[in-house]
Design a protein that fits this description.
Chain B: Belongs to the binding-protein-dependent transport system permease family. The complex is a heterodimer of chains A (352) and B (293). By secondary structure, chain A is α+β, with helices and mostly antiparallel strands. Chain A is built from 8 helices and 20 strands. In chain B, α5 packs parallel to α10. Chain B is globular and about 75 Å long. Classes of the chains: A alpha+beta (352), B mainly alpha (293).
Chain lengths: 352, 293
């Protein structure tokens, strides 16, 4: 068990690309931590830098109280599960799980008994003598997890842990992973590009872009108060409404409607109004527009309104209240759910 | 299967054969006929000169019996096996793999430079490199003698087989290097990285994370280079089989029997025996390869 301290870490590839750029991060002991971002944001490189597979060009990585920056991967006390699980195809599940002990030259019986003990915790006992090729995707993942746990490392790293599973299995595996991590209390960092996965699994999330952390917080914080428009856009299964607006006479005006009172902002200031479709509700006054598209999401429907000036505003309504196309509707944000971003740099200014 | 399924081009068997004919003629003239001809003269007393050159007599299995009883033939079989084992199966294989493995993390420019240098030994014509090595190993001011401060050592006379083995490793490693370089590129990086993360050392990583993925490549490579080495005639250019038959591998023996002693029939019989030996080796490799699947 150990915390991870990343201080001023930069990782540069031979072609000069700075994949991680002067990054500071602390992952607490026992935490389930997500590195989230679009592809190419440096999240996998950061994970590999923690593992020691990429050398840090600058800065230091500390695990527990040990500075591991210059240590080789095998000496860092980290275990990692790759996206493709990387089970050795010619070994049985038992041999794979016992492999960390085999390289340390533990006796054969110890290898086997450890493999049996770890595997039983992941309901793999029946599969010990199969080869990876004879396992389903979910079983392969559990076998790879078992092998990582057999290392008895201080830190577990997971690269896109759910992306090789089909959709149905992904939900099961997500719940399973979360329970396993809570039971073990093992400091775990995982990488994902899927915001729903990060929200559901993680205790805390670092949203990354271009080698830097854009926002660090709990799933609730990241979802409800994205610190800038990049994060606002990236998080949420239905994209957040981001509407150009101006401040006039102490009020935000957007798409022909007067929204919130902002007494501290000067008239003429450009702002961006951010509000999630889930937090908009039908009202008599507010932003008015015509229903142009209705998309059924199952329990709810996503309604897109075309407003004055061509702005598009989306909201979700219960599926039984689906409005007719072309109907005029007015919507307002639930209290506290309206976010204001600065127009010039996209930083969060305020919420109303 | 209906005829139309097999005849996709709609040519009919006669015209289809017309397209195959040129290739078949070439194969027939340059491969099948010489092979059958060798088989035929292997059972005759055909000679380069004299009455038996004009009217060879069929002597049946006499040549084969002579060969199997001939101590020179046994000597050559032993030397050929030694030559193939030391220079190809062990030398070229291990050195080629080691170079490919060590060059993996190296900058692409440097890697290509090393590959180019190694490849140079492979693409240069045999007589040219043989002459170069002759100069290196010569008794009279040879480079190796000067380097080791043993100027009057006749390496090719005192250590003929060792010289040949070193020469053939130098000459043939390029093929193994290139083959293993591409084989290693096909090993999933996550396998190697997993082994490193689990604390495996270099040898354990190769054994557990790399070798199982390239087993087929290893067998194919070993088969090819051992057959090439067994059939290699370049030793003649360096030692001509000497001194006193100490480096007389089978191709050299065949050449000397055929063209120096003029025993064409006998040499053909030995060629056939070499072919049979090669086939047996190939069968063993193929058996090993199939067991993988």
């Amino acid at each position: 068990m150990a915390a991870i301290d990343i201080a001023g870490v930069s990782t540069t590839y031979p072609n000069g690309v700075r994949a991680v750029d002067g990054l500071d991060l602390r992952v607490a002991d026992g935490e389930l931590f997500a590195l989230l971002g679009p592809s190419g944001c440096g999240k996998t490189t950061l994970l590999r830098t923690i593992a020691g597979l990429e050398p840090a060009a600058e800065g230091s990585v500390t695990i527990g109280s040990r500075d591991v920056t210059r240590l080789p991967p095998g000496a860092r006390g980290v275990a990692m599960v790759f996206q493709d699980y990387a089970l050795f195809p010619h070994m049985t599940v038992a041999e794979n799980v016992g492999y960390p002990l085999r390289v340390r030259r533990a006796p054969r019986e110890v290898q086997r008994s450890t493999a049996e003990r770890v595997a039983s915790g992941l309901s793999l006992s029946e599969l010990l003598d199969r080869r990876p090729g004879q396992l389903s995707g979910g079983q392969q993942q559990r076998a790879a997890l078992a092998r990582a746990l057999a290392v008895e490392a201080d830190v577990l790293l997971l690269d896109e842990p759910l992306s090789n599973l089909d959709a149905r299995l992904r939900l099961e595996a997500r719940t399973f992973l979360k329970r396993l991590q809570h039971d073990l209390g093992l400091t775990t960092v995982f990488v994902t590009h899927d915001q729903a996965e990060a929200l559901a699994l993680a205790d805390r999330i670092a949203v990354m872009e271009a080698g830097r952390v854009r926002q660090l917080g709990t799933p609730r914080e990241v979802f409800q108060r994205p610190s800038d428009t990049f994060v606002a856009n990236f998080i949420g299964s239905t994209p957040m409404n981001l509407l150009d607006a101006v401040v006039r006479d102490g009020h935000v005006e957007c798409a022909g409607a007067r929204l919130a009172r902002v007494p501290h902002l000067a008239s003429g200031t450009g702002v961006i109004v951010g509000v999630r479709p889930e937090y908009l509700r039908v009202d008599e006054h507010g932003i008015t527009g015509r229903v142009s598209i209705v998309e059924n999401l199952g329990v709810t429907s996503l309604v897109t309104l075309e407003c004055a000036g061509g702005a598009l505003v989306s909201l979700t309504v219960p599926e039984q209240d689906e409005p007719a196309l072309g109907r005029s509707m007015a919507v307002t944000a639930a209290p506290g759910r309206l976010l204001l971003y600065a127009a010039e740099d996209g930083r969060l200014l305020d919420s109303r | 299967m209906r005829a139309a399924d097999r005849d996709a081009a709609g040519l009919g068997p006669v015209r289809a054969f017309g397209f195959l004919a040129p290739a078949l003629v070439l194969i027939g003239v340059f491969l099948v006929f010489p092979a059958l001809w060798t088989l035929y003269i292997g059972i005759t007393d055909y000679q380069l000169t004299g009455p038996a050159a004009v009217q060879p007599q069929v002597v049946g299995a006499e040549n084969f019996r002579t060969a199997l009883a001939d101590p020179l033939f046994g000597n050559s079989v032993r030397l050929t096996a030694l030559y193939a084992l030391c220079s190809a199966v062990i030398g070229q294989n291990v050195l080629g793999f080691a170079l490919a493995w060590l060059l993996r993390p190296v900058r692409p420019g440097l890697r290509r430079a090393v590959e180019g240098l190694v490849l140079l030994a492979w693409v240069l014509p045999g007589p040219v490199v043989a002459y170069l090595w002759f100069a290196v190993l010569s008794r009279d001011g040879g480079t190796l003698g000067l380097l080791l401060d043993r100027p009057a050592t006749a390496w090719l006379v005192e250590y003929p087989m060792a010289s040949l083995v070193v020469f053939n490793i130098w000459r043939g490693t390029a093929f193994s290097l290139l083959l293993y370089t591409s084989a290693l590129a096909a090993v999933p990086p996550s396998q190697v990285e997993t082994a490193r993360l689990l604390g495996a050392n270099g040898w354990q990583t190769v054994r557990d994370a790399v070798f199982p993925h390239i087993r087929g490549h290893v067998l194919t490579n070993t088969l090819l280079i051992s057959l090439w080495t067994a059939n290699d005639f370049t030793p003649f250019l360096l030692t001509a089989g000497g001194p006193n038959h100490e480096s007389e591998v089978l191709p050299v023996l065949i050449y000397r029997q055929a063209l120096e002693s003029g025993q064409l029939g006998y040499a053909s019989a030995i060629s056939l025996l070499l072919l049979v030996g090669n086939l047996l080796v190939a069968l063993v490799y193929l058996r090993l390869l199939r067991r993988r699947a």
